[in-house]
């Protein structure tokens, strides 16, 4: 009787599969019905929460992809007159960093890709 009461009152503390595997064959389902009912509810709740988290992650992923596409559509014109916004030197090699606010710098002048070196604006770190 104490074992049945323990199971029926503390479903969250036990691994349902291990409990079911270790139960004596003489016990009826009715004896542990409260435990089973709570275990099924707990499992269904966990499953629903996992599904909701997965859908929210997909939504966030789509939002990030949309933002990335929008940023990549904007053209950056590089010519001999264009200077690095940090060191004010011309661009001698074809690689550069463009921040979402339009600031263009040398790769070595871009210390942190999430913080604009000119304005100090913090950009989302969720895209990393």
UniProtKB/TrEMBL annotation:
Transmembrane segments: none
Domain of life per record: Eukaryota
InterPro entries the UniProt entry points to: Vam6/VPS39/TRAP1, VPS39/TGFA1_Znf
One Gene Ontology term, aspect cellular component: cytoplasm
Pfam family, one: zf-Vps39_C
Domain Vacuolar sorting protein 39/Transforming growth factor beta receptor-associated zinc finger: 76-112
GO biological-process terms attached to the record: autophagy; endosomal vesicle fusion
Name listed for the protein in its UniProt record: Vacuolar sorting protein 39/Transforming growth factor beta receptor-associated zinc finger domain-containing protein
Organism field: Magallana gigas (Pacific oyster)
């Amino acid at each position: 009787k104490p074992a049945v009461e323990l199971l029926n009152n503390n479903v969250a503390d036990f691994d349902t599969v291990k409990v079911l595997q270790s139960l004596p064959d003489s016990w009826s389902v009715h004896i542990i019905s409260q435990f089973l009912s709570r275990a099924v509810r707990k499992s269904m709740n966990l499953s629903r929460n996992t599904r909701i988290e997965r859908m929210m992650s997909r939504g966030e992923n789509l939002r990030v992809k949309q933002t990335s596409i929008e940023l990549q559509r904007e053209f950056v014109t590089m010519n001999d007159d264009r200077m690095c916004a940090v060191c004010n030197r011309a661009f001698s090699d074809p690689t550069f960093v463009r921040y979402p606010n339009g600031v263009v710098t040398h790769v070595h002048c871009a210390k942190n890709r999430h913080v604009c070196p000119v304005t100090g604006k913090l950009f989302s770190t969720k895209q990393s």
